[in-house]
Write a structure and sequence with these properties.
Structural class: mainly beta
Number of strands: 55
CATH topology of one domain: Maltoporin, Chain A
Strand content: over 45%
Radius of gyration: 35 Å
CATH class of one domain: Mainly Beta
Amino acid sequence: MNYSNKIKNITRFLLLIVFMFSSTVIFAQSKQVSGKIVDDSGFGMPGVSVLEKGTSNGTITGMDGMFSLNVGNKADLIISFIGFKTQTISSEGQNVFIITLEEDVQQLEQVVVVGYGRKSIKDVTGAIASVKPEELAKAPVANFDQALAGRMAGVQVNFTDAQPGEGMNIIIRGGNSITGSNKPLYVIDGIPMEDFDSGSINARDIESYDVLKDASATAIYGSRGANGVIIINTKGGNVGPSRVTVNSSIGIQWIPETMDVMSPYEFVKLQQEIAIGKGGDEPQNFIDTWVNPELYRDSKATNWQDEIFRSAVIQNHTVGLSGGNEKTTHNMSLNYLNQEGTLINTGFEKFNGKIKLDHKLSDKIKTGVNINYSKMEQSGVKVASNNRVSVIMDALTSRPVEPINSDGLENGVDPDDPDNLRFNPVKTLNNTDKSKRWTVFRANAYTQFELMKGLDLKLTGGYVSDNRKESVFYNADTRQAYKDGGISGSLTDRVYTTLSTSNTLNYSTKIDGGHKIGALLGYEYSVKNDEVFTAGSKDMPLDNLNVHSLQVGATPELPTSYKSKHMMQSYFSRLDYSFREKYLLTASYRVDGSSRFLGDNKWGYFPSVSVGWRMIEEEFISDLNVFSNLKLRAGWGATGNNRVPNESAYSLMASNSENGYVFGNNLSKGFYVSKLADANLKWETTYQYNAGIDFGLLDGRLSATIDVYKKNTKDLLLDAAMAPSTSFKTIWTNVGEVENKGIEFSFTSRNIETDDFTWTTNFNISMNRNKVIELTGGATELKTDPQWNSKITEYQYISEVGSSVGQFYGLKSDGLYQVEDFNYVNGQGYVLKEDVPMNGSSAVIPGSVKYKDLNNDGNIDEKDRTVIGSAEPKHFGGLGNDFTYKGFDLSIFFQWSYGNDILNVNRVLLESPGIKYNYNYLQSVEDRYTSTNPGNNIHIIRGEKSVLGGAPDGNKVSDRLVEDGSFLKLKTVSLGYNFSKKFLKKTCFSKARVYVAAQNLYTWTNYSGYDPEVSVGKKGALTPGLDYSAYPASTTVTFGVDLKF
């Protein structure tokens, strides 16, 4: 063997020794670790990442949460999972682990839902507000939207009428439309819905609730995004063992305040005053009937409000099941709610069922289906704004010394009411069988393909069916039967169906140098069908019949039917770009075609663009060590509105059911044009600018957002009145422009965070100013009648160029006429002095309401009417504080509105100056004007034939009816206790919480009515803030339990 071969052999031997030694060292320094990762309920968590720190060596947990991994002897393990806090654990001296992960609330809040996708909150350039599902669950309400009031900046959520089953009125950044709808667009699990019923979703099923407020966020929804967009996603399943949840509560509801009316003594004393004022035989008639007011000082009053209102039970029960494996996940729930109305014989009942399935067909294809079914029933008489006639008004005005079944109201009708407007309210409620039953079926399915890395195709189809049956049956002991002269009933069937498809292509990629690009292309098509059928009958023979026996009525009404269709076709796109996560750009463009318009007006074009600057990523900001977050945002966009009747651009024909021409022996009915159309009717378009700043301080303990905006809505859609000479009443047309501008501020702070105690605060305040910029045809004003009283023909609202939409319109009062305003002339009574303006009545007397003569012509007439108030608040918002201490949790939330007025037309009847024999009045009338009490508060009560002169004429709409509607409400209080894990180990539960919760617990307000949250005008944005016989909001206290198995 030569020398070179020896060297080779020696080298090989040495390398073998080194390799063996190195292997021994390596194997000596490695070990196997294993364990289980669980959530705070003790359930194993599949899919959790377990990584050896500083290496790429790692694994994920299996279905049972178990893992096993070979690591270095002193390795640190990094445990991470989306939505949970990342943990770093040392393995030195330990090989087996049981690790509990905690939810990272902040991380969960870093993702928001946007149109056709999700975004990290740091990449958002538009104005978006979100509400946590657990906040909705704290409020003991029938429908989830009732828990939203005051929760979000820029979003007004108010009762219009608190009748059980009624939805809330939600306005985002002020109303855009005048007579068109101001309701936001709802997107439920990807299905856009213009007509959404909040009762069709159980609050416990909601996973996320996001509100898109500015045009840069909503323009992707184009023609339907002008009023803002509310995106609701329901819960899906999670990988892991199936879990059962139970949420059950029961509580009591009551009216917190009733209205003060006259006592028996005060009432009888007023009857005496009216009789003396009227003169003639009336004083003796009073003595024959009532004898002497003093006899009634200690009389027991019949409190009619107590007779029609009650303490009512509300119960709400939900059972849920969720879980799944790596291929298929599921989430199912059943919900039952029953809410008795606080007004007798009213209520709301609903049943919800939901199932959501997601399945991976392969690594690149997944599919899913979501089905929701709701069955609801609203029962009882509708009481609000019912054209002067109302059971609540009957209860307030019925004489307090009349027992329920006394002679006066034995047969229902008050014989002393000259207009027969009053009827025994208890009988009306108990003998009117009125209900609205409806079922909502909503289903959507999707299939998503990963065509290549970063490129996804998603195909989605949706179907919604809404079937409604409304019926009413008036038996002989009801006001309607008295009015019609017999028993009557009617039935209305409505069927709405919507079929939609949405196909999107989504691409995202990262390019070296810090570039991140996202692109979306989409096509959408929907068709909605509406069908309505009505029938009715009068003079039915028996009380025990119902609406299914209409054919036996002696006077059947001619059935009517209606069918229409609306189709929409849309193309849309969006581009997202960021550079080094500092500089952000989002742009979108949507084209919508609607069958509600003709010709070129069918198509609407809606672009948007927004930018963002994450200043926190700049060294000159981060080096300050002041901000934990700082981002500037700005955007512009256009959105549309086409919410008019489907046939608005078409002239309508109708036939006369009674008249026609006789040819031979046959009557031939002709057709005539019943409604004209504007063939140039087009989209209402809103252009909006928004600028905002998001910032965080104190290492994220304080986070805040400020937004300012300005939006102009042009080509307003209005069902405008036509000249009487045309013989047509109204026509849909585009009429002008409205502006809304405002500022919003919100913040969240984590005040205290210890192992045992936490305290967080959330606050928001918003200010919006609305203004009419232009009305078509050079008009400067638009006057509106809210239609609450057919006998009041004067307009009570006005929308003027340069002022806000729907301001109160009437006379300004100037106190009361006093004796010194008159000369007393024998034989004529009190004659007004020449230099004192007349209030519009042919004769006035001391104590009559005096109005201001604004144009100084000596007369009070139409020319003296002016703006007397506004329902628009100066600001509104909410304040919440949440506390936890060991197992206890306490949540307290306040809602407020400041500077808004209410037109309280209840007082037109309840403080009427005209003759109202046997009508009760508000207790405030006790301070009325008399010869011994010549004050300036409440006008005199005298009859039309008063010996002192004419009627006081105080029924005119004036600022006397305008009240401050500002309020502060203790909206929600919730106190709960979570049982400890140590205790739960002895049970079958993984979580258990008991709680007591209250809603509308107390209201601070100067308003004299039942509730300042009211608006029952029939003309929407043109008639806000009207209160007439509204169903009062109730206080609710519930006791409940949340369980998880």
